[in-house]
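Re: that chain you flagged

S.,

Sorry for the slow reply, it's been a week of failed gels. I finally had a moment to sit down with the sequence you sent. For the record, here it is as I used it:
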Amino acid sequence: MDTNARPDAPPAQGAGDATGSPSPTAGSKKKLVGPRAFKLFWDAHSVTGIVIGLALFVIFFAGAFALYRGELHAWADPGLRASETTLSADAITQPLFVDAPPAQGSDVQVTYPLRDRTYFFVRYDTPSGDSTRAVQAYVNASTGEAFTPTVENHVGRSALSEILYDLHFFGQAGIWGEIVSGLVAVFFLFAVVSGIIIHLRKLPKDWHTFRPRSTLRTKLADAHNVLGLVGLPFAAMYAITGAFLSLLVILLAPTVFVVFDGDRGAVNDELAGFEMPPHEVTGEAVPMLPLSTYADGVPDTWHEHGIETATIIVHGWADDAGVVLVYGETDNALTAAPRAALDAATGDVLAASNVPTASALGGAAAAMTNLHYARLGTPVAKILFFFLALTTSAVILTGNILWILVRRPNDPRATPLLHRVLARLTVGIGCGLVAAVPLLFLTTSILPLDLPDLQFWEHMAMFGGWLVLTLAAFSGSSAVGAARWQLALAGVLSLLVPIASGFNGATPWVSLANSWWGILTIDVGFLLMGLALLWTAARLDPPALKEDAAGERNSTPEQDRAGPSLAVEGGRA
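Prediction finished late last night. Pasting the structure tokens below so you have them in one place:
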């Protein structure tokens, strides 16, 4: 994003950019690159930021909530909230197996509650006449109550969590949306690198320079630089991991066809560092051992590395050749999740992998995923990533605003149409999304969870509200005015979210008593965000901005080294 004036713009007396740094032609012997290369990097940084800026803002803002995907399920659906009591896998599955026993030789999957999951997931086939029918159940880990989700391929009765998770990589558009988000991440990495080159000489000063009482452009430039530097390692990591995860389908396609002859299963084995033992159903019936036997029968190295059972899949239920595949998870490593294969009849270990021996390819892929979603073994990391994602969102929007301000003529009426449209889109897409997200939360909390059209109304609240706010940003005489009332609306809606959460049984003291730390974090986060949005809206006072712009035009290099003069009007964008 563009933080300052263009390098070819006429500098103010003694100043060359919005932060008071010398122009690219001044002091060239101190530059990392020459004047022409500097200008090319500057222009590339600006254009790249503008082209991908709004898409990148959506990715980061929605991504902040995607970090709490599991916790959002529990926030939206009280039936998924954990308690101190957790039933065993045998106790969970016994009523299901009595009512509909698994078909001999079929596959049975049981996923355990772990990390942000507060439920068991059970899936298998049961005999039905001459064939079989599928049984799929989500079971509360505390009460044993089974429920059927009404959101296709998702957990729970509400679509709130999945809407924000999918929006993080444009999942609503399918595989093409995911590819687009990956390409945006690639260009974002280029913007990060070019920004480092541009600011490398003055990084020590930009790190701590913030002048909140200076002119508007200087304040925005300082905020853009300081926040950008604070979140620089985070932004680079997210650019790399996001591009990798979103473009993994494209990256692995040549490997699948050239190296593995189109065998995707072989690729999965390589990623896991584990090869599934061959097995074929014989038809000879044998009694099954309790599921807890398989969970406890994993190698001792699992326990040494803090690995917990995450999923058990029985291939060939009650068959003499049955094999049980146990998946593990750990909070103490970034590498691939381990697996173990056990004999279903005896419980003996047939093959196993653990964290230290994961394949290089599988370890790299797992590390990318775990870093991207802050699966680092502590809630503090997730909270830090959440605020850094919001900080990066602020860097993106300030970059867009600066690009418009720096190129605005002294007479606001002469502002090019493209700049006016970009200003309104920045308000509508940026501020509109910030208001649409708490609107989604309030819709979920107000409407009954058993409402047949709940997911439809959730989508309408999110995307319909966002569309209305985007269109509303083009009305009125000022983009600043539109931004002010949309931020104020977002602030009020955000403050209502913790109140709605309390009415749904998750008041702060109840959350503390039940250790619902995820829900409490979400409510506190909305409280802080609401206050910050209202404060920002109050600062966007058009008369004050007029005086700010006037001061910017009349300032001297000694008073404010802000570069070329510009106008910020209270009447037009």
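What I noticed first: The longest strand covers residues 119-128.

Talk soon,
D.
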